[in-house]
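Final report, closing paragraph on structural work. Over the funding period we assembled a curated collection of sequence-structure pairs, and we close with a single example.
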Amino acid sequence: MSYLEQLSQLKIEQEKAALKVFSEFRFDLEDLAEELIEAEEFNASGQIEIS
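Its predicted structure, as stored:
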């Protein structure tokens, strides 16, 4: 189950649905991303992963 599915509690099977859920939760995701960046929780490729 993807993080977006966990967050929305919906089964996401199509790109359109994923974009809709992302749109609804984008500010929550942005806040989480900022926290991970501040904590310097980067993966081996230098990216943050929301999971």
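Residues 25-51 form one domain. The CA atoms of residues 32 and 51 lie 10 Å apart. We thank the funder for supporting this effort.
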